[in-house]
Amino acid sequence: MQQLIYVSYASDDFQSGDVFKIIETSARNNPTRDVTGFLVYAHDTFVQFVEGPAASLDALLDDLKADSRHERLEVLERREGRGRCFPNWRMERLAVSGGDARILEQKLRQTEISQATIARLVETVMTPRMAA
Ligand SMILES: Cc1cc2nc3c(=O)[nH]c(=O)nc-3n(C[C@H](O)[C@H](O)[C@H](O)COP(=O)(O)O)c2cc1C
Q1: pLDDT tens per residue, range 36-77
Q2: Three-class DSSP labels, the chain
């Protein structure tokens, strides 16, 4: 059982409503792959935590890298986990809004993701992106 967390950014191909579609697709596909986790979308930034067998995470990463709705995907941590943290979450959307990222911080503290990465991610989703 591995845990993986990455950050990526909505691309020009991303449309409003896509987050809903992504959650739907994930809920359909992830049980087959034995993958669970959560997704945050805030300030044009995605943070996704996924857990499952290593081969499943590799396959998901291949799909994610080919998905033109986001770009600059950067895996921040990937590690062996002692067990599954979110067994009931096929892919839960965590609402980070109104400048409140406490839910993200709280959920990540239930995982084995390092405190340094958690702090960096909270900062990232709280900061509006500059116009390119
Ligand atoms: C930020 C982001 C997160 C995603 N997370 C998942 C996921 O957890 N599981 C999944 O199957 N697809 C996820 N997708 C969609 C995949 O990139 C891809 O579109 C999908 O796996 C294709 O599935 P389909 O062939 O059943 O349409 C995500 C896409 C984005 C942009």
Answers
A1: 999 999 989 999 999 999 999 999 999 999 999 999 999 999
A2: CEEEEEEEEECCCCCCCHHHHHHHHHHHHHHHHCCEEEEEEECCEEEEEEEECHHHHHHHHHHHHCCCCEEEEEEEEEEECCCCCCCCCCCEEECCECCECHHHHHHHCCCCCCHHHHHHHHHHHHCCCCCC
